[in-house]
Structure formats: structure tokens, C-alpha cells
Amino acid sequence: MPASYAYLGPEGTFTEVALRTLPEAATRELIPYVSVQSALDAVRAGEAEAAFVPIENSVEGGITTTLDELVAGEPLMIYREVLLSITFALLVRPGTKLADIKTVSAHPAAQPQVRNWLRANLPDATWESAASNADAARLVQEGRYDAAFAGEFAAARYGLEALETAIHDAENAQTRFVLVGRPARPAAPSGADKTSVVLWQRDDHPGALRDLLGEFASRGINLMLLQSRPTGAGIGNYCFCIDAEGHIADRRMAEALMGLRRICLQVRFLGSYPRADIAPGGARPLLPGTSDEEFIAAADWVARCQDGRF
């Protein structure tokens, strides 16, 4: 396997900045790809060891392009996550004034994060989506568009200047990025982990979603992300992307996944990995009756009952 990481490019994206915060990135060749799909396909094809892509932002929630790519195709697994605070700059060719701007471009995920600023400052400008924010900057450099929303750090790389900086509609906006590779044994629990899965219902019936969520709730497992995605099999047919607190090595999580495997048409395990929002060992206290020791004691009690030793 090549010692390289694919990432959503071109150079100068927030994805690249987040990727470079990983210590192991210094020992890998970092290769930009034009889309999330092409970066993940590079891993599936054996052209890259892993891919680093955005998966969620604090303004709009899950990034559907990435979720859909993880739902479909050859299975992949999440190994790490990184949180990056996001603020935009309006990048333009030197000499451009605000009144000159008729077209603006950025990745679609950026639009909800700058919508109010755009309405207040450039109400007549036309929005044009780009494959990434850095790609939007490149297109401005080429003269395709008048301005791009991107990181201020991308200005020098594309010969642009930041006409406005610190643009954001929501304070403390963050984007979550994940390092994705081929399936393998998850790393040992860190004490502050999350598990990601995709669930397909066996059939549509009253309480179907409650049944799925009940497998987590009855074991004291908190959910961190729940997003439905269409399966492509017709209106009303959805699968559910879920992030839950805990590690597959935890008894409560393992039993929840076994329960889901029994009642779901399909379960895709996307990985158990350390959380980026808290330090190892800093997870919230467990609810009574949900520790590994209590699960083991309960299983032992059942075994004794079966043997007539109660």
C-alpha cells in the first residue's frame, strides 16, 4: 500500500489544513484529489493508504457527499477524526472592489455558513458551486468568477488578496474531518470514543425508527449524529447514518450492534475511533447498569440460572 494520504484538493483547502494537524501526515505523501469520491476511490483502488475528507459541520450537519460515499460501494472504515474551526475570507484578484463582484464561488457546504453575510453585503451576486473552496479560489485566479469564499491562507497560493476576512454567520463554527481507510481491526478503546454505523430497516412500519434507536437507548448509549439518507429505491426508502458514544469493544456497544444486526436488513460498521472533542478518558460517566463489569455480571447470572445455581 502506498505511504500516501489522499485528500479533498486542490492545495489550500481547509481539508489540507486539518490533515496537516495529524502527526502521521508528516511521514506521508499528501495527494490532492478533485472530489471526495475520487479521494475515497483512491483508497478502494489501492492507490492511497487512506483518504482525509470532511464529514460534518456544526452549521448544516452531515456532509451528504461524504456520507453517501461511505454508505455505498466497497466498505471503508474511519480511523481518526479532526475538528477544525472555520472562518472564511472573500478572496479576489488584486484591485477588485466589493462593487465589482457579480459572481462568487465556494464549496456547497460553505454557503450556509456565509449566507447572511452574502445577503447583507452582496445581495445581487450569483452563487456558483465549486468542488472545494480552494478550487473556487483557483477559478477566481483564472477569471471564471469574481470572488471565492475560502481560507485566508489560500490567497497567496492563488495570487489573490483577501478583500474581507473573518466571515461567518455562526460563531465558533467547526467542520469535522475523518481519516478513512480499508477495513481492519479498530484501535483499542481510548476511553473517549465514538462508533459510526449505517442502518437499513428491514421494512417500513410504525415505530421502526424507535426500534433501531431503542437498541442504543436501552443500553445507555448516547447518539451524536443521526441522519437519514435516501437509498435510491424510491420515495420513503432511507438508511440511517449514526454516530454513537462508545467503542465496539465495550460490552454495551457490542450488544447494541448485535441487536441491530438481528432486526435490520443490513448494518454497515464504519469504525470505532477516538473522539476529537474530548481528551482520552474524558467521556461522560456511564449510566447505572451499563458498564462492562455489569454486563459481564448479568451474563454470569443468566448462566448460573441456566445451570440451576441461582
Highlighted features:
single chain, 310 residues, alpha/beta, 6-stranded mixed sheet, 5-stranded mixed sheet, 27% helix, elongated
Question: What do these coordinates show?
Answer:
- This protein is α/β, with parallel strands linked by helices and 310 residues long.
- Helix content is 27%, strand content 31%.
- The chain has helices at 14-19, 36-44, 64-71, 111-121, 133-141, 154-157, 208-217, 251-263, 292-306; strands at 4-8, 29-33, 50-57, 61-62, 77-85, 88-92, 103-106, 126-129, 147-150, 161-167, 174-181, 193-201, 223-230, 238-245, 264-274.
- Strands 1, 2, 3, 4, 5 and 11 form a 6-stranded mixed β-sheet that branches. Strands 8-7-9-6-10 form a 5-stranded mixed β-sheet. The chain has a 4-stranded antiparallel β-sheet with strand order 13-14-12-15, with helices on both faces.
- A hairpin with a 7-residue loop joins strand 13 and strand 14.
- Helix 7 (208-217) runs antiparallel to helix 8 (251-263).
- The protein is elongated.
- The mean pLDDT is 94.
